[in-house]
């Protein structure tokens, strides 16, 4: 148990952009308990609740529990440096974020905060690999032409398709402009989401890890990525129901919307809830008029329900 500085907590709650009901649901408590922490009627907090409270507020335990008033920089200091970011995140990606956090015992915020570094590393390695492949191709062409009998060299050189040279130049330009998905090379493949160079690179790295994965990485420049990580964690949550697991991996149902009582239920009951939730969404969608369907299709994430009292934010 850790003692809370109620004045600091009160200041931080005043700056929190959402309602206290939403915050209470996110950390797995109720508004009454949150209010008692704020007023000092409850002075101590369990370490697991403190960790969830810190994650939700985007602060460190020190900023909540240290003696003295909250520094002006904290609205601004650590709290401001880790402020709330509003973005629309594909449901499948949200599910993957929760499953990866569960697998490695870290918070979703920690994953998000290291994501720019990991992306930059993967992107640069992908571009480096493409440079090496392009140079190897150029060297091979020179070797083929150079090894030909003299009387065939000119004819071989003349037989090269001008489009081939343009293609090599387009790839070189694509690499120099850090065009990860090779958009500058042109619409060169119907299945570009899986066969573009960045998706292929990520697939290769994923295979090297040995992580269970059913379909690999699919990602192009104008859509959300699909990568299906977290299968072992889903087996732990939903059991062997492959249909329910697929609904979560495909982002048809958000794990975060699973009610607290279902989270505490059996694997079969959780899987049944997932399938029922997907059926309800399908029925709702089928009843919409075409214009509304178009608008719904442009929404990558379903609106999240308000967390209920007792919900644990484990997923």
From TrEMBL:
Tell me which residues make up the HTH cro/C1-type domain.
19-64
InterPro entries assigned to the protein according to its UniProt record, in alphabetical order: Cro/C1-type_HTH (IPR001387), Lambda_DNA-bd_dom_sf (IPR010982)
Q: Which SUPFAM superfamilies match?
A: lambda repressor-like DNA-binding domains
Q: Which residues form a coiled coil?
A: none
| CDD domains attached to this UniProt entry | HTH_XRE
On the tree of life, the source organism's domain of life is Bacteria
Q: Where is this region: Disordered?
A: 284-315
List residues traversing the bilayer.
none
Please list the GO terms describing molecular function: DNA binding
Q: What is this protein called?
A: Helix-turn-helix transcriptional regulator
From what organism does this protein derive? Aquicoccus porphyridii
